[in-house]
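Q: Protein A?
A:
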Amino acid sequence: MSTDTSYASHKLHEPLRSEKASNQHPRSATPRIPKWRKYVHLYLPVVVSFILIISAEKLSQRIGFSRFDRGNTLPIILASAIPTYLLGSTVYPSNRPDPTPEQSIRFTRRKDIYRALVLLTYGRLFGTSFNFIFYGLDVLCSFAMDTVIGERPIGTPQRRSEFIVACLWVVGSWILHQVIPFSTPIVGLFLGIAERTLWRTAYVALVDDVVGVLARPNVRRVRGKVTLVLVQSFIITSFNYLARSFLKRLVSEAMLQKEGISAEA
C-alpha cells in the first residue's frame, strides 16, 4: 500500500518538476549571438578601408571635398569612421554579456600562431625584406619578453592598455641609452636586440589593444563609443596609408627597372 502511495506521489510531482525546469531554462540560458554580429565593429572598418582605397578620390570629388583640400582624401578617410560606427551599431548586440576570464585573454596570447603572424607583418608593412633567421629570433625574444614585462594571471583584473606599458619600456630603454653610453660591442649587440624586441613588443601590444576595443567595445558608455570611433578611424587611415605606400613602392620599382632596361639598351 505504501509503495503504491509513493509511486502515485512521484507521478503527481513529476509534471510539476518538469514544468518548473522548463520555466527556469529560458531565464538561465543566454541567447547565442551570431559571430558576424559580435565582431561587426572589427571587420567593418577593414571592409570600408578597401572600399576607400579604390574609390576615395572619386568619392571626394562627388561630395565636393576636392575643391577645398586640393585632392587630399584624408578628411573623407577620417570622417568615414562615423558612418562605419553607425552602420555597425544597427546590428551589434548592445546587451552583450560581460566577458569571461578566458575571453579576456589578449588576442596574441590565445594561440602562439596569432603572435607569430602579427610579428610577420611588422617589417612587411614598411617594405622590409623577409629574413627567416631574424624572424625566428623576433618570435623567441617576444615570448621571452613576456617574462620581463609580466602578464596578469587569468581571472585577475587586466591592464587597460598593454600598448602604454610597452611604450614605457621603449622610453625607458631610450633613456638608458642616453644616460649610460655603452661602447662595448657585445653589450651594444645585446642592447640592440633588446631595443628591437621592445619595439616589436609595442607593436604586438598595439594590435592586442586595437583588437580588444573592436571585438568587444564598451558601447554602454559615451567614452567607450568615442574610443571605438577613434580606433576605427585609426584602422581605416592606417590601411589606406599602407596601401598607398605599397602602390608607390611598386610604381617606383617598376620605373627603376624600366630605366635600367633602357640604359642597358
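Q: Protein B?
A:
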Amino acid sequence: MQTTTDLLTKFKQFPSLLGEDLTYIRSQSFFADNLTTLDYEDQQKNNWRVYFFEKPLTRVYLGVLFDYIAAELDDEAILHRVVCSPEFADNYRALLEQFEFSCFNIYELASVQPMLSQAAQDRSSGRTYEDELIMFGEDLLHQDLNTAWSDFTLLFSDRVVKKELSATEAEQQRHFHVYFRSELYDEGQLRIVYKQGERKLKCPHTVHLELIGIENRAETLFLTTLPLMEALDRREGQLFVNIPYDEKRIETNDRERIEWILKKWELDTFDMMSLQDYSINEMRTFIQKMAAVTLLQGAAVKS
C-alpha cells in the first residue's frame, strides 16, 4: 500500500485527482497536527484549499480542522474546500458535506489509479522543454551550488568529469564535500546523465546524487535519483522535485522520521520549480533537499 507521503506527492503532481483544470500552487505542513494544506487554482482563478490529514479524521482532528477554518473566515478568496483523510466516520463526513466540503478517502485507490494514468498522460504532452532542461543541467554542473542548512554545509568542486556509460549514454560528474558542524562528514558526486548525440549540449534525463564515503571512493554508500522526464509537467514547464525513496531499503518508520526532519529543516514544502524562471537560490534549495534526503536515507540504512 502506498504511504500517505506518496499520496501527498501525487496530490501535488496530479491536481486532476481533486478536480478538472486545477493548478497546484503551494503547500504548508503542520507536523503537530498531522496536517498539510495544499492550495490550487482553477481556470476561473478560484482558489481551492485541501486539508490533507495523514491519520484518520477523529474527533480531535475534526476540532483541529475547524480551528484552521475559523482562522481563515476572513479569507474570501477560498471558494472550495476539500478534506482528505485515510478514514472518515460516517457522521463526520455527513457534517462536513453539510458545510459543502468535499471529502476524499485517500486510500480509495481503485478510483484514483485511472485518474493517475490520465493525469500522467496529460502531463507528458505539450512542449518538450529540451532547451530549458539543457540549461538546468548546465547550471547544476557549472553554477556556484555551495550551500548550507541546519548543521550541514555542502562545498562543490568546479571541476566537471565526463564518463562514458555506453555507446548511447554518458554522464557528467561534479564532486562535493559534506561538512557537519565544520567537520568533514562525507563526500559525494552530483551526476547528470544524458543520451549521446550530435548536439554539443545534451539534454539530461536523470539527476543522481551519490554518497561515496570518505575512505572508500569505489563504493556507493547511498544514491538518490530524480528522473527528469517523469518529474516534468510539460503543460506548465514545472519540475516537481519530490525525491523518490529507496523502497527496498527504507522502512516506513524510517520514512516518517525522514519526513519529520525535512519539515524541521523547512525543506518539505519545496516541491516544484519553474524551468523557465528559477533563481540560483532555488537551485541551491533543490540541492539541499536532494542532499538531505540522500544523507538521511544513508543514515537510516547504516543504523
